[in-house]
């Protein structure tokens, strides 16, 4: 099922710029479009292209601006037919800039890269040869399939290993090329 928006919802969609990026918090979801899965992906891509807004803590030198973020949302599924069922679950997933893995995991005492912790980023949990960086694996794949190699940030939106368990029904990687340059074929 997809949502049917009323006029208040459509007005709220037009005010996205008022909230998106405030205090380094970005919002991505199907609700920014027509409610389809593709609208959720498109809104995430739009969010990754927006420049981070500077907040008071960053201006005061409390922390450096990061390109990584934490996406908070809701997953809904509805099955119809003879075995009708459904669920609604809150979810939080890191959008991790692969150049920031070590810095970010050093900041959070319960999150580590390649070491046991309640939350762990392990390279081997994601596509490709675990001896090759995920960034390189993604860029090689894009180059093979698209014919060019992006040179901007590479980000991973996925669940990370929690308490030793890895359940990752979807892992999305986003490789970008800065828009200010054009690519020549």
Please provide a written account of the structure.
- There is one protein chain.
- The protein has a 4-stranded antiparallel sheet, covered by helices on one side.
- It has helices at 7-13, 16-19, 37-49, 56-59, 101-107, 134-146; strands at residues 69-79, 85-97, 111-113, 119-121, 154-158, 161-162, 171-175.
- With 185 residues, it is an alpha+beta fold.
- The protein contains 6 helices and 7 strands, in the order ααααββαββαβββ.
- The protein folds into 2 domains: 1-65, no CATH class; 67-185, no CATH class.
What is the structure about, briefly put?
This protein has helices at residues 7-13, 16-19, 37-49, 56-59, 101-107, 134-146; strands at 69-79, 85-97, 111-113, 119-121, 154-158, 161-162, 171-175. By secondary structure, the chain is of the alpha+beta class. The strands form two sheets. A four-stranded antiparallel β-sheet has the order 1-2-5-7, covered by helices on one side. A three-stranded mixed β-sheet has the order 3-4-6, with helices on one face.
Question: Structural class, from helix and strand content?
Answer: alpha+beta
N-to-C span: 41 Å
Shape: globular
In total, the number of domains comes to 2
Tally of extended strands? 7
Helix proportion range: 25-40%
Estimate the mean pLDDT confidence.
79
Q: What secondary-structure arrangement, pairings included, does this model have?
A:
Elements: H1 7-13, H2 16-19, H3 37-49, H4 56-59, E1 69-79, E2 85-97, H5 101-107, E3 111-113, E4 119-121, H6 134-146, E5 154-158, E6 161-162, E7 171-175
Parallel strand pairs: 3-4
Antiparallel strand pairs: 1-2, 2-5, 4-6, 5-7
């Amino acid at each position: 099922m997809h949502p049917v928006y009323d006029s208040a919802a459509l007005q709220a969609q037009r005010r996205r710029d008022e909230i998106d990026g405030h205090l380094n918090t970005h919002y991505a979801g199907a609700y920014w479009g027509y409610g389809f899965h593709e609208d959720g992906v498109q809104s995430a891509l739009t969010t990754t292209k927006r420049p981070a807004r500077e907040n008071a803590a960053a201006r005061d030198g409390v922390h450096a601006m990061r390109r990584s973020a934490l996406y908070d949302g809701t997953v809904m599924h509805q099955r119809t037919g003879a075995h009708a069922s459904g669920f609604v679950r809150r979810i939080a997933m890191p959008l991790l800039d692969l150049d920031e893995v070590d810095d970010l995991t050093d900041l959070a005492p319960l999150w580590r890269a390649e070491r046991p912790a309640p939350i762990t980023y392990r390279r081997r949990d994601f596509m490709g040869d675990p001896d090759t960086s995920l960034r390189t694996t993604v860029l090689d794949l894009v180059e093979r399939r698209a014919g060019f190699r992006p040179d901007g940030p590479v980000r991973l939106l996925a669940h990370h290993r929690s308490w030793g368990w890895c359940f990752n029904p979807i892992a999305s990687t986003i490789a970008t090329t800065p828009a200010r340059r054009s690519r020549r074929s």
